[in-house]
Amino acid sequence: DHCVTGVQTCALPILLAFFATASWFFLLKHKWRWYVVCVALGLHTHYFMSLVFLSQIAYSFVLPKTSVLRKHLVKNSGAVGILSIPWAIFVLLNRPPVQSQFWITQPTSKDIFTIPVTLLTGIEQSARGNTNLIIMSMAILLWVYCLFMAKRLFKRRPDHENFLALLYWIIVPIGVVLLGSIFKPLYLPRYIIFTSVGFMLLLFFFLEHTKEKARLVLMVIIGVFLCYYQGYQLRNKSKPDIRSTIREIKTLSGPNDVIYVDNELNFHVAQYYYDPAKVFIISKTHKEIPTYVGKILIPASSIKLSPPQYPARAFIINSSLDYDIQSTQ
């Protein structure tokens, strides 16, 4: 339970993607009980599931008024609402103050333009390094190809239900997030990972309707780019190894020694590898800790303003994972 923050950062968006994909599947298959369960569980997983539900409602309204799917979706929306009441109450009772610090930054024009690459790889702005030229080139290729194929397929069959479903799966949530970011930053690639599944399926759909030689060329280009990107991530984006630092501290520490971290992001991780009762945060008050780092799991008693009295010692780990040994006389 000391890695809850990490789980929320990584696992919850992935679980959201699962429920979003399952809900679209059951929607298109008209399996309404399973659809209601998936949407309700998705809402209890992450509030962005509401964007999935919104995109499905929007999709149903482009279908003919006589559509069975539209009628059943409207009918089952009430069941989704009832099952979502506990989630709504929880969100209202636990939402942070409106003016609280927020760590997501405003999306730039470059972020918006490279959305196809983001959906393909999950790459974030901070992870791009010196690959901007390659990313921009890939973004141009994906935009040109997707727009060309969308225009071509609309001319052939504008009422293709699966094609429209994939478009709404992607466009509505991202559109709402970008519009909402005008007022407060909401755009973060890991939060829209559920649209990546729709984008992948749409890309496969386009490739199926592409001539064989052109399809082969595109698949090779995309495959080479993905291999390059994964190699770049492995070379340049490895996380600092706090486990080795704490293992070294364990060999030097005595029964009364403690660990202090000067970065609250390392608090839960340090607790995982060391005695949780002996891990503290230094040089920061509890009020200064932002809510988005799992503050609810950091009691005020875990904040220390000075090292312990000798003979106890504090191993103070800084953000670069170096450490000093201190105590007060």
Give the C-alpha Rg. 24 Å
The helical percent reads 55-70%
Helix-strand pattern: HHHHHHHHHHHHEHEEEE
Class derived from helix and strand content? mainly alpha
* Percentage of β-strand residues: 5-15%
Task: Determine the mean pLDDT.
Answer: 85
Number of helices: 13
Main beta sheet: 5 strands, mixed
Structural key phrases:
single chain; 329 residues; five-stranded mixed sheet
Write a structural description.
With about 325 residues, the protein is mainly alpha-helical. It is built from 13 helices and five strands. The chain has a five-stranded mixed beta sheet, with helices on one face.
In brief, what are we looking at here?
This protein has 13 helices and five strands. The chain is mostly helical and 329 residues long. It is globular, with a radius of gyration of 24 Å.
